[in-house]
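Make up an example, fold above all:
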Amino acid sequence: MVENIKTYKVLLSGRVQGIGFRYFAESVAGKYSVKGYVKNTPVGKVEILCQGEEEEVGAFIDEVRKGPAFSVITDIVNQEVIDNKIYNSFEIKY
């Protein structure tokens, strides 16, 4: 149901690049049936756009905030965004 679909943008700071964070996020997204994307930003952060049922997205964000081994997350900002696009998969953007 489209009315139950929520979209959030999550921005993670710290040691989040070069340690497999994008692959970790992709794996967690599959676990929770979350769609969207993950990408590195030019300023050393990881940006995630995640879309799905509110409960699934919440569980995804909770798990992603723990990060993979060797990550050190110093800050996480997540906010609901209005996005009319419906994502069909979760992808790693390069």
About this structure: The beta strands are 5-15, 35-40, 46-53, 72-80, 90-93. The first strand starts at residue 5 and ends at 15.
